[in-house]
Amino acid sequence: MESTSDLLESLSRSPAILAGLVKSIPADRMTLRRGQDFWTIAEHVSHLAKVQPMLLGRIERFIAEDHPEFVPFIPEGHDERTEVQLDAKTALEQFSTYRDRQVALLKGVDEAAWNKTATHPEYDQYSLSILGRHILMHDFWHMYRIEELWLTRDAFLTKLD
Fold it and tell me: Does any domain span residue 76?
């Protein structure tokens, strides 16, 4: 596994990186829908905040249970765009608050806990170390998409199915 200290440092930096990105985006771009199946920037920011309590719960379960069994967070066919979205300020605050709690918990676990495995129907393997890395990759995938939706010209915008 990569250095847990590097992972924890990266996880702890995500809120500031996200906040800086969001603050640089003009307000009129936040809710602009670039295509029928595209999320808006505001929807991406809200999503990042709204998944943090679930991720904290998964970390807590890894610590408390011998071999937790997880279910997918978003059921197939579910469209988050139909849910109430958090405004950017609230979303950034929630993201930061939960991330601080996640990192504090993760700093307290030993190597055995980092290597503890779980069952998750979406993944061939799942462990606390994989979850930690997954959280970071999830952050940065959405941040990349936010920047892409803000800056990329239509002809070059990645179309997701």
Answer: no
